[in-house]
Design a protein that fits this description.
The complex is a heterodimer of chains A (about 260) and B (about 120). Chain A is α/β, with parallel strands linked by helices and about 260 residues long. Chain A has one domain: TIM Barrel (Alpha-Beta Barrel), CATH 3.20.20.140. In chain A, about 45% of the residues lie in helices and about 15% in strands. The longest helix of chain A has 20 residues. Chain A is globular. The model of chain A has no long low-confidence stretch (mean pLDDT about 95). In chain B, strands 1-2 form a two-stranded antiparallel sheet. Helices cover about 40% and strands about 5% of the residues of chain B. In chain B, helix 2 runs antiparallel to helix 3. Among the domains of chain B are: about 30 residues; about 30 residues. The N terminus of chain B is likely disordered. Chain B is mainly alpha-helical and about 120 residues long. The chains are: A alpha/beta (about 260), B mainly alpha (about 120). At the A-B interface, helix 4, helix 5, helix 6 and helix 7 of A face helix 1 and helix 3 of B.
Chain lengths: ~260, ~120
């Protein structure tokens, strides 16, 4: 995880984490050229796997240009042209996290190109949905755009960062839904379990925000503890926390976990 | 395999049309009311007081409300209302309800409430 210290890998492994999946995302600043993305993709596909391997933690990644940098269409196209050169790397699971940020026309154009790229290369897709007030509109736009690409099976696409008002948009269309856990401002462990109790458990996975902002790599095991406090069985917890993501990710033959 | 199926819904005994609702397998809610209160009441009480203190803080600060506080007051009405899905309805109160893509991004960040709401 490019934004985290090595201590986090150690904590994750000792908490029972069996693999980490790191999507390409915004660095907190705009990269100035395609060369910055080339170096970033090397970091995601070569250097981070080595760092995680020190703790026997399999590291996987997803590649794209994040929607926050998609307003620059020239740069975005250059990055799109770069991605196929990395898709055969052993830890690359698919295209992500693509999506929308402020729901602009340029973001939509670049999202469409990512969707086409994923379809042409038979890749799994991980989709970022916008934050806060932009999430509802953005999720609707994203779902409609991906549904229009007939070559992408909905079951090979995960719509991430869903909340109570968007989870059904993803699940009703046959997509997977990701619930991203944050220590503040967004979805908490308690709300995540509420969503699974009220909206569905079959095509849902939970993930931790592990970026350069306020985030917690142990949010998923903390949610497992929250489920135990409510009285959920060990089987129910394992099914949601472990089996579901394994089921989705195993659609990529490169994905392997220890059990 | 798709894990949902279409179901016909009838409203008020009068057939109003075919509405497709998904019926997905859910994680059973197994807590009794008392257990839910035991687990979450103190935390929710604390957050409610935080909300009250936030309003006190904002209201004693000189100046006018803006769209964020207006959306906040609208969302608070949901808390006192009847019916389920209060979290979903609060989120909707803060959401951009439009469908048209923006011509250009006004910035990168979201502020938590839709500025277009009057």
């Amino acid at each position: 995880m490019v934004s985290r210290t090595t201590d986090d890998y150690l904590k994750m492994v000792t908490s029972g984490c069996e693999a980490v999946c790191e999507p390409a995302f915004w660095a907190g600043f705009d990269r100035s050229s395609v060369a910055g993305f080339y170096d970033y993709f090397l970091q995601l596909t070569m250097h981070e796997p080595k760092r995680a391997e020190r703790f026997k933690l399999p590291h996987y990644s997803w590649l794209c240009i994040n929607p926050k940098e998609s307003e620059d269409m020239v740069l975005a196209q250059e990055v799109l042209d770069l991605i196929p050169k990395f898709l055969d790397r052993p830890n690359v699971l698919g295209i992500g996290e693509i999506g929308l940020n402020k729901n602009t026309r340029n973001e939509i154009a670049i999202l469409e190109k990512h969707i086409t790229l994923a379809a042409e290369h038979g890749q799994l897709v991980l989709v970022h949905t916008p934050h806060l007030e932009d999430k509802l509109k953005g999720t609707k736009l994203i779902v409609d755009l991906i549904k229009a690409e007939s070559r992408l099976e909905p079951g090979r696409v995960i719509i991430d960062h869903v909340e109570e008002h968007t989870v059904s948009l993803a699940l009703d269309a046959g997509f997977w839904a990701g619930i991203t856990l944050y220590p503040e401002s967004k979805c908490t462990p308690a709300r995540a379990i509420d969503i699974v109790e009220t909206c569905g458990k079959e095509q849902v996975w939970l993930n931790c925000a592990c970026d350069w902002g306020v985030s917690d790599p142990l949010a998923v095991p903390k949610t497992a503890l929250e489920m135990r406090r409510r009285g959920h069985s060990a089987e129910a917890i394992d099914s949601l926390i472990y089996q579901n993501p394994v089921r989705f990710l195993s659609q990529c033959r490169k994905f392997k976990v220890g059990r | 395999m798709r894990d949902f199926f279409a179901r016909l819904i009838f409203s008020g005994g009068v057939r109003k049309g075919f509405i497709f609702e998904t019926a997905r397998e859910k994680l059973p809610s197994i807590m009794k009311r008392e257990q839910a209160l035991d687990l979450y009441f103190i935390d929710a009480r604390s957050k409610l007081i935080d909300l009250a203190a936030f309003l006190d803080r904002a209201e004693r600060s000189p100046g006018a409300d803006d769209f964020r506080l207006a959306a906040f007051r609208e969302a608070l009405k949901v808390l006192g209302s009847d019916g389920p899905e209060k979290a979903r309805r609060v989120l909707l109160a803060f959401s951009d309800p439009t469908q048209e893509p923006l011509a250009a991004a006004p910035g990168k960040s979201a502020c938590g409430a839709w500025p277009g709401k009057k």
